[in-house]
Specification:
The chain has 183 residues and is an alpha+beta fold. It is built from five helices and six strands.
Length: 183
Amino acid sequence: MEITQKQTKIAIGAALVALIVFFVYRSRKPKKLKTITIKDTYTVPPGTPNMADALHAFERRKSDGFGGRMSTKINEALRKMHAEGINPDIYDLKVNVDSKKYKVDWEATLGESKDGKAYVGMSTVGSAGTGADARAKSQIENMKTWAKGAKDYTLVLDFVNPQGIYIRQYFYKYTKPSEYPAH
């Protein structure tokens, strides 16, 4: 049985149509969003001045520089994602404070922005002890001036320590469109 030139052309045409259908279907299939999780722990050393204040030093204290550098680590990861061509975002932030051991564990889940904005930074303010709610809230507007060119401040987590030393902490994400434009 010989294959005719017409049959060969039909077979090639069918194969091309199948490839086109495959690539069209593949391009319409929703892509799974890339997510990463970063986490860390810090412990306030015994004898540190104002240990309750140090406990909620998620970034660092002005008085002695002590802190967990949470914003620094999250910001580095967000900016790395942006450099890879992804509009990054913070999907979830979990904080666990152990007031007895003066230990903090945190975990952030980062991924592709669902609103198209490139969230490349996070800042946090807060307070501990009596009157912490009012003090923490009063710091928010000033915090929004720290990152030059930052916009779209959005609350990620309003943290209240559920037991032990009372802590009220606000975590905000932001964009910096002039420096890190959305892709």
